[in-house]
Amino acid sequence: MPDSIRSRPVFVLQSTAVALWHGYDVAMVDLDGVVYRGGAALASAPERLTQLRGHGLTVAFVTNNASRTPAAVAAQLRALGVDAADADVVTSAQAAARVVAGMVPAGSRVLVVGGEGLRQALLEHRLIPIASAEDDPAAVVQGFAPEVGWALLAEAAYAVAAEVPWVASNLDQTLPTERGIAPGNGTLVAAVAATSQRMPVVAGKPEPALFDETVIRVGGNCPLIVGDRLDTDVAGANRVGADSLLVLTGVTDLDRLAAATPLERPTFVSADLGGLEVPHLPPVVDGTGVTCGQWRVEVVDHELWVERGRAAEPPAERDVVDLVRAAVTAAWRHLDSNQVAVSMSTASARLHEMMQGHAGRADEGTLDE
Ligand SMILES: [Mg+2]
To answer: How far is ligand 1, taken at its centre, from the CA of residue 35, in Å?
Structure first.
């Protein structure tokens, strides 16, 4: 794969002497699993994002979801208490429309297998959204929308069979909903691909087009890509050579992170967006263990063990980051030399306990052991 050859592999976490945000002028923040989850804002996310803007960073919300317009996404964010203007939201629909616009002349008809987000994005590029292969589309653009059904997928298959350019907003296989895991755009694209024996050009994460779109819209020279998924946010960051912060508030837990290959490893990791506000200390490797801040971890029989020192307490935010950094450093070292992922259950339990403690301090005191 030429793309993986271009990608920048990450073998170890990077460190910073000052709070992480200092190194960047734009934060490209993913939404689901980072800012909100299941329709509710994640604890402290709205305040953290405001704080980040207060430091002078541009905050862009960058989403693979193509179904809604940026205005609709921004309105949802504001309803959750997140300070967001419409122009702060960049979607894979916008990136896909720009890719299509580079392939067909302005004024062309484009078959839309998707929702309002895609239709509006095409209009911005003076492309005409249509819904039938019989109207002679010059291209097909496909992104998730709940109304996409067999009839529209059949239209896509007819048009794609005519060898016109075919662009997908993203290939996410799944879409988490309140009721469970539903088919994502990648699954619907696969139906058309299986029918036509073709594959689309892809615009969303981990492909570079959506990051390029974000730079075009919000500017910036030194972005930090913040996300919860290894295969989209982090792999995409590595592909464009940008630094990434993985937060553990979404689909990736410590066990999944411990098993990550270098192309899907983030440059930084933290429990939540609080990780932007603290230095990321260099983990110290000694023989069999790794120390970071107060934490010492050791791998014994493919299991990671955690011990906490008794010296002066670091600030709670940094303490959490230190634990995660020690654990992940030890886990990757183990994976790289043994080709076996360690079990992170002890570290996960410790982390969970600390995060509960955080939440508890805010309203009803601590939950310390
Ligand atoms: Mg996400």
So the answer is: 9
The verdict on pTM exceeding 0.90 is yes
Alpha-carbon distance 273 to 90, whole Å? 20
Q: Give the model confidence (pLDDT) of 157-195 as tens digits.
A: 999 999 999 999 999 998 888 788 899 999 999 999 999
The rounded Å distance from CA 228 to ligand 1 centre is 5
Q: How far apart are CA 256 and CA 230, in angstroms?
A: 9
Q: How far apart are CA 369 and CA 360, in angstroms?
A: 13
Q: Are 140 and 110 in contact (CB under 8 A)?
A: yes
Residue labelled with tokens 């949802």: 76
Ligand 1 center to 163 CA (angstroms): 33
Helix (H) / strand (E) element for 236: namely helix 235-240
Tell me the per-residue pLDDT of 221-238, one tens digit each, with 9 for 90 and over: 999 999 999 999 999 999
Q: Of 114, 132, 74, 71, give the one whose Cα is nearest residue 203.
A: 114
List residues with catalytic annotation.
30, 32
Residues with CB under 5 A from ligand 1 (ion): 30, 32-33, 228, 250
